[in-house]
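dumping this here so i dont lose it
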């Protein structure tokens, strides 16, 4: 965060405030970890704060300290709207465009609070008065750690906060294997462990608590994988019928897209997941090397994210979307084969 915005934030937080903390829709480990860590910090420093999530989040994140205090905008609509409308400060974490909060966007647009953005995705919009945007960071959780340090309060990071921040860093870096993982990321993680973060236990809670139905769904996804060697690409499809057959629960497909990148020679991995309730096809893109799935998703699939990890969507059927997707690959062949 630049010095001007940091000083402005310090001034804002110099007296007790009513604060709402917002993650993106379908929040992941980084979104939940960063919002809860910030919530603990603000409450511990005398503020009245609440995390308001646009919708529910995966069961494997609900062990996190403070998770039972998160308001669900879909299920606790009146209370959530009151919290947003009464807020003097609204922190938005792990997203940089109000379109990422779904039906909550109207409430945020009507809010009179001062907005503070903390995010590491590319091409931020300008809705926030105070911005901390850094695409070089591994995760929003790492940014929350840095922000607390910049506020002069690093010693106030509790074990609960350390566990939340560690979770977000671990999940958003693919257990520290993604390109955005830096030596400084590891220094942050080391300090979090010194402050009580339980790395082994966190990894177990996130990755080793699968249901049989989730593993059966993974088997279905892998069976559906198509490999396009000519374009160094692999993609997976999951229909609504297949999701229903294996009793899909929120978060069950987390990480499925990454399996494509475990294949030798594959540079681009994609998963297409049908969501009939929302009437869209959700798409996740992953890449290795210099191929920017952020640019690809923004150009063709109304999405975006990071250079090597992005999301998008399609209003067409799986078949129509796959036909369109594969028709795009010839123009990217040289980039994908480089």
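and the seq i came up w/
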């Amino acid at each position: 965060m630049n010095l001007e915005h940091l000083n402005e934030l310090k001034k804002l937080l110099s007296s007790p405030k009513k604060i709402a903390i917002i993650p993106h829709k379908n929040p992941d480990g980084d979104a939940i970890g960063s919002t809860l860590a910030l919530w603990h910090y603000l409450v511990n420093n005398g503020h009245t704060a609440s995390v308001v999530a646009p919708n529910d989040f995966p069961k494997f994140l609900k062990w996190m300290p403070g998770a039972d205090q998160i308001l669900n905008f879909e299920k606790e609509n009146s209370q959530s709207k009151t919290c947003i409308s009464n807020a003097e400060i609204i922190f938005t974490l792990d997203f940089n465009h109000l379109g990422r909060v779904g039906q909550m966007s109207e409430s945020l647009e009507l809010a009179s609070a001062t907005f503070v953005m903390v995010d590491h995705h590319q091409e931020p919009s300008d809705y926030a008065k105070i911005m901390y945007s850094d695409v070089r960071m591994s995760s929003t959780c790492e940014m929350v750690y840095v922000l607390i340090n910049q506020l002069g309060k690093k010693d106030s990071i509790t074990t609960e906060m350390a566990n939340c921040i560690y979770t977000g860093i671990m999940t958003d870096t693919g257990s520290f294997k993604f390109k955005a993982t830096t030596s400084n990321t590891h220094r942050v993680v080391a300090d979090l462990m010194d402050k009580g973060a339980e790395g082994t236990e966190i990894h177990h809670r996130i990755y080793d608590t699968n249901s049989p139905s989730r593993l059966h769904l993974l088997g279905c996804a892998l069976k559906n994988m198509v490999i396009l060697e000519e374009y160094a690409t692999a993609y997976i499809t999951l229909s609504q019928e297949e999701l229903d057959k294996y009793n899909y629960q929120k978060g069950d497909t987390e990480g499925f897209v990454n399996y494509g990148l475990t294949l030798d020679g594959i540079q681009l991995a994609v998963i297409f997941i049908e969501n009939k309730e929302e009437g869209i096809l959700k798409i996740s893109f992953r890449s290795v090397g210099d191929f920017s799935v952020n640019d690809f998703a923004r150009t063709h699939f109304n999405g975006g994210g990071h250079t090597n990890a992005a999301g998008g969507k399609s209003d067409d059927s799986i078949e129509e979307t796959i036909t369109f997707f594969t028709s795009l690959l010839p123009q990217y062949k040289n980039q994908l084969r480089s």
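The first helix runs from residue 3 to 12.
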